[in-house]
Amino acid sequence: MKQELVHVIAGNLFAISDAQGDIETDPQAPLGLFAYDTRFLSHWVLRIDGERINALSRDDLTYFETRFFLVPGAASHYVDADVSIIRHRSVHDCFHENITVLNHSSQPAEFTVRVEMASDFTDIVEVGQLRQRAVEVSADSANQQLVLRYQRDRFVRETTVRSTVPAEVDERGMTFQIRIAPDGKWETDLHVSVTMGGEDGRDLRADLQSHQQIVRTGMEEDLVQWLDRAPQLVAERKGLEELYQGSLADLAALRYRPLSYRERVPIGGLPWAMGLCGRDALITCLQTMAFTPELAPATLRMLALMQGGQLDDALDEEPGKILAQLRYGETGAFSDRTSALYYGAADTTPLFVVLLDEYERWSGDADLVRELRHPARMALDWIDEYGDLTGDGYLRYQRRNERDGTINQCWKDSPDAIVDAHGRQPAFPRATCELQGYAYDAKRRGARLAREFWGDPAYADRLEREAAALKERFNRDFWLPHREHYALALDPYGEPVDALASNIGHLLWSGIVADDRAEAVAEHLVGPRLFSGWGVRTFATGQRAYNPVGTHLGAVWPSDNALIAAGLRRYRLDVQAARIADGIFDMAQTLGGATPGVIAGYERDLTTYPVQLTTSCRPQAWSSGAMLMLLGTMLGLRPTGDNLLVNPAVPEGFGRLELLDIPGRWGHSDAYARDRTTERRHRLH
C-alpha cells in the first residue's frame, strides 16, 4: 500500500505531497505544485541535519490549508525527540509554506535546515511519461530567492521561491544555518509564485508574512460567505449535515477563473481534471441549481464565449458546438496532443441549452436568456446540422481528429465504453441513447425560451414538432421489446447496440421515455444486474464486457446516479429513486471525506466497503454536486412559475430533513420532509 497523499487546492492551483509534506517525482501519481496544467514544483523536500522527516500528525484546516507535525529521523526518534517541526502550508494564487523548528531541550541547539527545490515544468497529461526540459536556474542569496524558468518559443513558465529570512541559495534549494535557544523556535516563510507567459502581474516581495495572512483571511471569508449563501440543512440522519457541508466546501475548492475571464466556474476534479471541462461544468451547475446557483451564469457565459465558430478537424470544432475542454499546458499550446481548445463532445451542446432554460426557471433571469439567445440558437442548430451525421434524425458522434481526438464523445468517454452485450464495438458514427434524450430535452426547452423570451413563436413551434417526432422515433427504434429496455446505442445502419447500461436512467431524466415503459426501465435500474447496493453500475452484469473495475463498464458513478434518481422521480417512481439515493449516501458516508468520482461495481455484500478506483478524481465537482442533487431529489424541489414546489420522497432511516433558505426567483423558501418510518412514528405519538 502506498502512503497517503495530501493535497491543498485553490481552484486551478493545487499541491499534492506525501504524508510528510515532501514532493518527489512519481510517474504513477501527480505529485507537485500545479497551476493551469503545468507542474511548477516537482521536488520540494525538507531535511534537518541531513535527515528526512517523518509525520506525527496532520491538521487539515480547510481545503486550501493544512499543517504537518513532524520529527526528523526514523520512528525510533519519535519518543522524547529534542526537536520537532511544523509545516504550515496554504495555497491561493501562490504557494506558501511556513516552517517552524522547535527546540525541546534545555540547551541551545544548532541545526542545518535544508529545503531541496526543483521543477520539471511537466504538463499534467505527461506525468506518466516524463520528458526532459531545459530548465534555467538562477540562485540569488542576496535576495533569498531561487528562480526556475522554462521557455519554448512564446510558452514561458517560471517558478520563484523566496524566503523571509536569510538563506544560502544554490541551484538545488535553500539552506538555513540556525541556532535556537532552549525551548525556543525558529521559523521562515517560503513563498512560491508562479508566472505564465512572462507576466507575473503581482509584486509579492515586500512583506510576505502580512500578505500571506491577508490572503488567508480573504479565502476564509470567501468560504464562509459561500457556505452562508447556500441553504442550511438540518437532518436527523447522523453525519448527513457534515456530508452536505463537506460537499459545499469541495465545490468551493473546485472553482477557478480561466485566464482573461473575471468569474469563477467549476472545474472537473483533483488531480486529472483541474481545468474547465464543458460536460462536468454543465452537469455540476444543473446538480447545484437549488444550492449554489451563481455557478450557472458564469459557466454559461464562459462556454458561450468559447463556442465553436468554424470547421476545424484538429479541434473537432464545428459552428455552434460547445467546448469539451480548455487546457493551458504545453502539449495543448503546441498541439503535441489535443489542442488547448477541444470540442470533442456531442453532449455539451444540448446540455448548454438545458442549463440555460433550467437556470431561468430557478432564477427568473430573463436578461441572461436574451443575452445568450444567439449562442443558444447556434447550439440548437448544431444538433441538426452537424450532430445528425447520417440524416436519420439522431444525434451522433464521430471524431474529426483521427490522430488523438476523443473516440467516444459522450459522457462515457473511455475508448471501450460503447459495446454491445457480447462486447463488440459498433461502427461510427454512433448514436448513444442518452444523447437523444438530451437533444429532445434541449429542443423542448429551446421552444419555451423562443416563445417566452425571444419573441419567435414559429421557431418554438418547429422545435416542439421536432422534439415530438424525435421522441416517437426514438421509442420505436431504440426499444428492445424482448428485453424491455432501451438499446445503449444505434450503429450507423440503425441496428441497436443491445447492451444494458446506466444510460437508460438519463433517458428518464430527459423525459424522452414513453410513460408506459418507465416502470420497466426503473426495474432494470434497481435490479441485481445494474444495482450494486451502493448505486447503479454503468454496465450490467452478465454481459461479456462487464468489469466491476471498468470505469464505464461496471463501475458506479455518483454523478450518473444523481441524474438517474432525478429521472425516476420525474416519472413518479419514488421507491426506486429513494433506493438509489440511500445507496449513494451510504457509500459517501462510509468512505468519509470528499465523495469520489467513481467506485468499483462489486456487490455490496461481497466487499461490504466501497472500493475506490485509482483513476477516480477526489474531490470531483460533479460527485460533490451529486450529493446536493440527491438531496433536492429526495425533497422533490421543482420551480413552478414564481413558486418552489416541494414534493418529498425520503428513504427510510433518514428521519426528518429541513432545507432552509433555498434561493430562487421566489426569494428564499424552506423545505421540510420526513421519511415514512418517521411519519408513522410521529402519527403514533
TrEMBL record:
What species does this protein belong to? Micromonospora arida
Can you say what this protein is called?
Answer: Amylo-alpha-1,6-glucosidase
Note the InterPro entries from the entry. Answer: 6-hairpin_glycosidase_sf, 6hp_glycosidase-like_sf, GDE_N_bis, MGH1-like_GH
In the record, biological process GO terms are:
carbohydrate metabolic process
Start and end residues of each Mannosylglycerate hydrolase MGH1-like glycoside hydrolase domain: 420-590
Putative glycogen debranching enzyme N-terminal domain boundaries: 10-190
